[in-house]
Write a structure and sequence with these properties.
By secondary structure, the chain is mainly beta. 4% of the residues lie in helices and 23% in strands. The protein is built from 2 helices and 29 strands. Strands 1, 2, 4, 6, 9 and 11 form a 6-stranded antiparallel β-sheet that branches. A 5-stranded antiparallel β-sheet has the order 3-5-10-7-8, with no helix packed on it. The chain starts with a strand and ends in a 19-residue tail after the last strand. 25% of the residues are buried.
């Protein structure tokens, strides 16, 4: 018969079942163990017990006396296998019983084996003791010995060896236990004179194991996530131990976390990390790929290549190299160099420098400069530039510009244009309009719009001024018209007439005078005195 139960593990010493005392001992043990069992409810183990062997045989691997009718020990039926040692310190062969028909699950971990031999010495005033108590694995009798020096009882009794945490110094797999050649072996010896008879009725074996993968943390297991064990979804291994710290687990989708087991939990940890890992790929030639900084789980803000970064190189002499704008991921549309771009420099003062056409990468055919082309530049702004003849590479004789010719144009409305004297190549000293000269209005009523009078840097300036000038007209009877204060270029904040300011006087004895609210530009709706007013 197979008995499978779940229990909390307790230490096991050799126990003896005898008539009458068994029930009392069981009750006492349960009463003592109950508080500890409840406190350790998470420490669970499975057990299977088999009480019948398929085969019991005499094995001469020890002693000198053979067992008689060894097959009688396969079941508990008060029919005995016997051995009569025949003298002090004489020992029997092994009584080896195997084939218990266990069905331990293949993914179980064996935690302990308890063997209970049911035996007696039926001859009074004589002594039988254990000579050897061994386990049998793969048909081979083990070396770990659990023999006791206690005398065998005179009445048929189960005596336990090993326990729920005792592996008999052997490594076990479920298939070892389930095998037909798994079992136990017993040798008895006589200790005094007389003719004692070692009588064995049966042997039963209880195997304690943990089953990894059942979703419950059994004794000896660190974790158990059921079907998730050993997968990336769990930090619990297929053997119900925590995966090694640093083992990869299910990605949480955040490239700035590490998704690793920590070695002390079955839960995947998503700590900050992956410094340098790309968390937002470049979306275009002018986009910047963002990377994790290793100190935050968030990807840095999206950014672009700086303005001026070449995103498309020139494909020819008349092509334009496009650069990023600094505010967009896209590279500007491909374009040609404008028609003003020189694609072939001049080979002489009266040679033509060819320009791009603006629609092609090819330079036009080489030619002479036309008669309007300067072949000798003026040495100064008031020197005359000589032109090519259009048919010769030589320049005409040098000459000065006529008096009155503008030699330095005004750079803006606050600069003055200088003219040549007709007798010098130099342009007169630069001059500007005097400070305070009116210039273009910037549209701000609170600025004065005057030239700065600075030589070399003439500019139309717009300092604060025009104190008292209305800069924001009244928008209603309850609005205040704001005026410039002369010290700021900004119009003061919009304000309203104070509350209780009459914005519509009473038009008769039955009319109500309306007053401003102090927070609106509009005068309240016209109202009248109620019909009960005298």
């Amino acid at each position: 018969m197979t008995r499978i139960t779940r229990r909390s593990l307790t230490s096991t010493a050799m126990t003896v079942d005898s008539p009458g005392g068994f029930l009392r001992r069981t009750i006492a043990i349960l009463a003592l163990a109950l508080p500890f069992l409840l406190a350790a409810s998470d420490a669970r183990a499975l057990i299977q017990t088999q009480s019948a062997a398929s085969t019991c045989v005499d094995d001469s691997g020890i002693g000198t006396v053979a067992w008689v009718n060894p097959g009688n020990a396969t079941t508990s039926d008060n029919v005995y296998a016997t051995a009569t040692p025949g003298g002090p310190n004489k020992a029997s062969h092994f009584l080896k019983c195997t084939g218990f028909g266990f069905s331990i699950p293949s993914n179980a971990t064996i935690q302990g084996i308890q063997v209970e031999w049911e035996y007696k010495n039926g001859v009074a005033s004589t002594t039988i003791t254990d000579n050897a108590v061994r386990i049998v694995k793969g048909g081979t009798i083990g070396t770990a010995d659990k023999a006791s020096v206690s005398s065998w009882p005179s009445m048929d009794t189960f005596v336990a060896y090993g326990g729920s945490a005792d592996l008999w110094s052997i490594t076990w797999t479920p298939s070892d236990i389930n095998a037909a050649n798994f079992g136990a072996a017993l040798s008895a010896q006589q200790k005094n004179n007389g003719s004692p008879v070692a009588s064995v009725d049966s042997v039963r074996i209880t195997v304690t194991y943990a089953q990894c993968g059942n979703g419950m943390i059994d004794t000896g297991e660190q974790c158990d996530d059921g079907a998730a064990n050993g997968t990336a979804a769990s930090c619990c291994s297929s053997t119900c131990t925590f995966k090694t710290s640093g083992t990869a687990c299910t990605d949480d989708g955040n490239p700035c976390t590490t998704d690793l087991c920590n070695g002390s939990s079955n839960v995947c940890q998503h700590a900050v990390g992956n410094a340098g890992a790309v968390c937002r790929a470049s979306a275009g030639a002018c986009d910047v790929a963002e990377s994790c900084d290793g100190s935050s789980t968030s990807c840095p803000a999206d950014g672009f290549q700086p303005s001026g970064t070449v995103c498309r190189a020139a494909a020819g002499a008349c092509d334009v190299a496009e650069t990023c704008s600094g505010s967009s991921a896209a590279c500007p549309t491909d374009a040609f160099l404008p028609s003003s771009t020189v694609c072939r420099p001049s080979a002489g003062p009266c040679d033509v420098a060819e320009n791009c056409t603006g629609t092609s990468t090819t330079c036009p055919t080489d030619a002479f400069q036309p008669s309007s082309t300067v072949c000798r530049a003026a040495v100064d702004v008031c020197d005359a530039a000589e032109n090519c003849t259009g048919s010769s590479a030589a320049c005409p004789a040098d000459a000065l510009k006529a008096a009155g010719t503008v030699c330095r144009a005004a750079v803006n409305e606050c600069d003055l244009a200088e003219t040549c004297t007709g007798s010098s190549t130099a342009c007169p000293t630069d001059a500007v309009k005097s400070a305070g000269t009116a210039c273009t209005d910037d549209g701000n009523v609170c600025t004065t719009d005057v030239c700065n009078g600075t030589v070399g840097s003439p500019a139309c300036t717009h300092p604060a001024g025009n104190a008292g000038t209305v800069c924001r007209a009244s928008a209603g009877t309850c609005d205040v018209a704001e005026t410039c204060d002369g010290s700021s270029t900004s119009c003061p904040a919009d304000t309203f007439q104070p509350s209780a300011t009459v914005c519509r006087a009473a038009a008769g004895v039955c009319d109500v005078a309306e007053t401003c609210s102090g927070s609106s530009a509009a005068c309240p709706t016209n109202a009248f005195l109620p019909s009960r007013a005298v």
